[in-house]
Amino acid sequence: MNSAERTVVDLVREIPYFEDVLLAHSFAPDVVLPHVFFSLVLEEVMADFNSSANSFDRAALFAFLERCLAGRQEEVVEVVTTSFIDDLPWPGQEGEEIVDELPPLLAEEYRRSHSTG
User: Would you put residue 32 in left (φ > 0), alpha (ψ -120 to 50) or beta?
Assistant: First the structure.
């Protein structure tokens, strides 16, 4: 299991709400597709945010992702950046206010990936 796959497992252990997301994306036993998983996590996050459902602790998720970026493991940073941060809403899109909840490293990466200049 590579570091990105371990990160998926660690997230599910830390925030069990996402176990169903993991099970829904698994096409074969013991196969973890981190990019697919984190894209699905983002869908859950945005649906939860836009509906004000508060089905899980977003702050805990963002803290987990912040630690992922701080760890600077290339595979993990790539997955979190490409399949989560890069797909957060742009200014003017529905749910853009979620960016205000991001901790410093996630916010910095968001600004970098969503800059227009």
Answer: beta
